[in-house]
Amino acid sequence: MSAASFRRKIFGNSPSGPSFPSFENAAGLDNATISALSAVGANGAFAAVNHPVEIGSPGTVGAPPTPVVTIAATDAMAAETGADPGTFRVTRTGSTVGALTVNYTIATGPTQASTGDYTPALSGSVTIASGQSFVDITITPIDDALFERPETLTLTLGDSGSYDVGAPAAATVTIADNDPPVTRIDSMPANPSGMPAAHFAFSASNAGSGVATFECSIDDSLPVPCTAGSVDYTVAPGGHTFSVPAIDQANASNRDASPETYAWTVVVPPSVTSTGFVRDRRTATYAQQITITNNNAVALTGPFFLVLDALSANATLVNATGTTTISAPLGSPYITVPGGTLAPGDTASLVLPFA
Ligand SMILES: [Ca+2]
Ligand SMILES: [Ca+2]
Ligand SMILES: [Ca+2]
Ligand SMILES: [Ca+2]
Fold it and tell me: Which secondary-structure segment (H or E) carries 1?
């Protein structure tokens, strides 16, 4: 029962006529439409001392009760698709006479929507009009192109001298995203590559606040999760294809419809054969013919480096490119065969003259 005080009133003689009804005002409303009549004994209605049928009703003396304000999300789900709005309702108790301005704060943080995610911009206060017990705040998502997580907009009521904050004091609208992640391959092996090891790194190129996961496939194998954003393979010589789509972690059906792919070829070094040493009687020098064969399905481009690891004694290479003196068995001497392209299956020969 609300705080109230009563005064005993001695009524004088009542006018003749029918009995006077009383009214039910248990809520203590001012200027409210009377909707129910009271009988003596109900809701504090009493009979006048000097008249058997005249009754009175208690009234409130003093200030009306402070209104209590609450907030709720009457439409908690909003979405970029179709500009599906979300709505908060701020409600007050008690009298609806006079406007009431209510303050609120807008939550911030990594999971919260920001001002670029919805319209209109919220001011931090809203006014319940005179005669109204509530006001609605409706926001409409902005259909941007960013890949985002489901973002929340949380409003929390702030107290003021004009009202008390009741429960619930906070409400949340969630904005569903409609943009799948777009896949980007950030690092990959060279093409062609002389290395069997292949490292790939990838990411979502239209990254907003969304969290992407990935599925990797090599040479049309069954895709497997590669959530770390990178993957390593060891592959045989030959042609290979890598494929990866980015997927919305919050909604697996929201995936990049056109995965990124990368094709590359792993090559083996050209094979090398040589003749034995042949002595030229006129010049009294020795020569060795070297043949290089490209056994790959792709062309190889020089320069090529030939390691001469079978020398049994020091030798001097005459007119060779890159190195003139070969010392053995010190280290691994090599000569450079200059640039040029070896088509698949092609051979190239050179003669190494030794002094
Ligand atoms: Ca909605
Ligand atoms: Ca957005
Ligand atoms: Ca969108
Ligand atoms: Ca978006």
Answer: none
- Region class of 219: left (phi > 0), else alpha (psi between -120 and 50), else beta: left
pTM: 0.63
Distance 140 CA to ligand 2 centre (A): 11
Instruction: Report residue 112 as tokens.
Output: 């919260």
* 115-124 pLDDT tens trace: 999 999 999 9
Q: Which fold has domain 271-354?
A: Immunoglobulin-like (2.60.40)
- Domain coordinates in residue numbering, the chain: 1-64, 68-176, 183-266, 271-354
Q: What's the CATH number for 183-266? A: 2.60.40.10
- Chain centroid to Cα 88, Å, comes to 25
Ligand nearest to the CA of 140: 1
Structurally, at CATH architecture level, domain 68-176 sits in Sandwich (2.60)
Q: How far is the CA of 223 from the centre of ligand 4 (A)?
A: 26
Compare 216 and 110 and report the one with higher pLDDT: 216
**Residue 141 CA, ligand 3 centroid: distance in Å:** 9
Ligand 4 center to 181 CA (angstroms):
10
